[in-house]
Design brief:
Largest sheet: 2 strands, antiparallel
Shape: rod-shaped
Strand content: 5-15%
Helix content: 40-55%
Radius of gyration: 21 Å
Oligomer: single chain
């Protein structure tokens, strides 16, 4: 699971990371850009695995199969 904080004062959002790292990034942003304003905004949670490759392995396998088929026809 990955977390991201969106600033309540401007359009800034942290990168997708762990909950604690995203919180630290948000706190650092508020300290730098909005001093004196309490930390606010929203937390977004991505239920997907942030390290997942998505459909990339399937595309690679399909490409290799097509390459084999083309090379066998010669």
């Amino acid at each position: 699971m990955a977390h991201r904080y969106r600033c309540g004062e401007c359009g800034f959002s942290t990168r997708w990371s762990t909950e604690s790292e995203a919180g630290d990034l948000a706190a650092a942003h508020y300290a730098d850009r909005h001093p004196g304003i309490p930390l606010g905004g929203i937390v977004q949670i991505n239920q997907k695995n942030p390290k997942a490759l998505g459909c990339l392995p399937m595309i690679g396998i399909t490409f290799l199969l097509l390459l084999i088929v083309v090379s066998c026809q010669r």
